[in-house]
Design goal:
It is a single chain. This protein is mostly helical and 515 residues long. The chain contains 25 helices and 2 strands. The relative contact order is 0.16.
């Protein structure tokens, strides 16, 4: 809730005094955003490891032998459910743990939840690096998933509650920036460990311990958010934390009073957060809060991110060149993410959703067209090198559109739209749905690629058309609106206003400008 409030004023809204960017809020936000390293490193390392010969020969020899004899259908080289279970098991564990984390957060705070998440991720990485069989691999992946679920539940909301409202998008998208840095780090690691015969995969999986250590150490140096401290009955500590992140000379009286007021209202409705989430009064929050993670999964980019080395092997690159292609793709993602961080608080969220959706849709149609015309033709296992390069370029262009829009906004918008009384429950619901769908998608993608072939990208392009129309019609603009006054965007929306109950904040609603 300490999202940098506004004082209502005629004709607009103004920042609280001291609501600007301070050194303390930057350092605090960087520490919290670094939780994204966990998600990013795992996403980047998994796809590279699953096509390494040393990894396949130890755990999945049937995939390795079948890949060499798959001349009849190049789309089916990696179709093995145990292999995809290695990738997807993390997501189902994360979905379950995120629901538990929402309750734990209300008891011990967001900072402590991030610490627990980092510890579980560290333990999982050690087990994976030492794995002697598939059971150990899956057990390690499940522990990684538990850590991921805890940090995903806490970190984006932590950022949203501490950042100044005017720059909340940039600060919250910092989480995604670290996700992309984690992906890039993992793909570079895979590029070098792939050259190590026999045990290179252990180095790739074991280095996941590094993000876990960073989270554990960083969590000791950041305070909990003012909202979380007030909610748990520590108003003095909350005020001190707010003063620290706003600056020692800032006047935080008005903002702190708004935080206390919002939390007091939340306490009056302290029970049944999940039940209220499904009531008519909160239907608009739930609809948008769930639509974003659901649509996110159907962009097709999560499987491109995880399985990009596998895709590049499918179209004809060698193992080393496939990983190099993933490195190039990760660099593209990082550039787009940094650009999005600088522009989203100027252009707004909805504009980026629309532009990014259109860009991804065009690229995925083009990828499907190239693969349909040139992969597996004339009894060839791979496509001509020029067309394989074209697939790499199109995937990078698709990734750029994704990194500019859905990748960062997937974390920004759900973390800022929910009121405080359902914020933990709403965030947990959004994350749980996203991770459940991520599990299902990763589990079936290779089978879909085998069955639908190039048509799988047309499937995702169709979804991109649907979600772009939805965002244009139903997403209210949230840029620059403080968390305390977020209800104003719903009362002005052409459709959602019918679900918004008039409250005592009505006098403030008309004075908030959402331009």
């Amino acid at each position: 809730m300490a999202g940098g409030g506004f004082v209502a004023a005629r004709g607009g809204a103004h920042d609280y005094g001291g609501g600007g960017v301070t050194f303390s809020v930057v350092v605090t936000s960087l520490m919290a955003a670094s939780c994204g390293l966990i998600y990013g490193y795992d996403s980047g390392v998994t796809g590279g490891v699953t096509q390494m010969d040393s990894f396949l020969s130890k755990f999945f020899p049937e995939v390795q032998s079948g890949r060499k004899g798959a001349r009849s259908d190049p789309y089916c080289k990696y179709d093995n459910q145990w292999l995809t279970a290695f990738s997807s098991s993390l997501f189902i564990a994360g979905a379950l743990s995120s629901l538990v984390a929402s309750r734990v957060t209300r008891k011990i705070g967001r900072q402590a939840v991030m610490l627990l998440g980092g510890a579980m991720f560290l333990a999982g990485s050690i087990i994976n690096a030492a794995a002697a069989n598939i059971a150990m691999l899956i057990a390690g992946r499940m522990l990684l998933g538990f850590g991921l679920g805890f940090t995903l539940q806490a970190a984006p909301v932590y950022l949203s509650e501490t950042a100044p409202a005017r720059w909340r998008g940039a600060f919250t998208s910092g989480y995604n920036t670290f996700v992309v840095i984690g992906i890039l780090s993992a793909t570079i690691t895979n590029y070098f460990t792939n050259r190590i015969p026999g045990w290179g995969w252990r180095v790739s999986l074991g280095l996941a311990a590094a993000p876990g250590v960073i989270i554990i150490v960083g969590a000791f140096f950041v305070p909990d958010t003012p909202s979380s401290l007030v909610l748990r009955g520590h108003p003095d500590r909350a005020r001190a934390a707010l003063q620290r992140i706003r600056g020692h000379h800032a006047d935080v009286d008005a903002e702190f009073k708004d935080i206390v007021r919002a939390v007091d209202e939340a306490r009056q409705n302290d029970t049944g957060a999940y039940r209220r989430l499904f009531s008519k009064e909160y239907r608009h929050y739930l609809a948008v809060g769930l639509a974003i993670p659901i649509f996110y999964q159907f962009t097709g980019m999560i499987v491109i991110s995880v399985f990009s080395p596998v895709l590049f092997r499918t179209v004809g690159f060698s193992s080393q060149k496939a990983i190099l292609g993933s490195v190039i793709n990760s660099i593209t993602n990082l550039v787009a993410t940094l650009l999005s961080t600088f522009v989203m608080d100027r252009t707004g969220r909805r504009f980026l959703f629309i532009i990014g959706g259109i860009g991804m849709m065009i690229c995925e149609v083009a990828i499907s067209w190239v693969m349909a015309g040139h992969l597996g033709k004339h009894q060839g296992v791979t496509m001509p090198r020029s067309y394989a390069t074209a697939v790499l370029v199109l995937i990078c262009m698709c990734t750029f559109s994704f990194g500019l829009s859905w990748a960062p906004l997937r974390w920004v918008v759900p973390s800022e739209i929910y009121p405080v009384e359902i914020r933990s429950a709403g965030q947990a619901m959004s994350i749980s749905v996203a991770l459940c769908l991520g599990f299902a998608e990763l589990q079936v993608f290779i089978a879909l690629l085998c069955a639908m072939k190039y048509g799988v990208f047309l499937f995702y392009a169709g979804w991109l058309l649907i979600m772009t129309i939805f965002m244009a019609a139903f997403l209210p603009e949230t840029k620059g609106v403080p968390l305390e006054a977020m209800q104003s965007i719903w009362t002005r929306h052409w459709y959602w206003k019918r679900f918004v109950r008039d409250t005592k904040h009505g006098s403030q609603i008309n004075s908030i400008s959402t331009s």
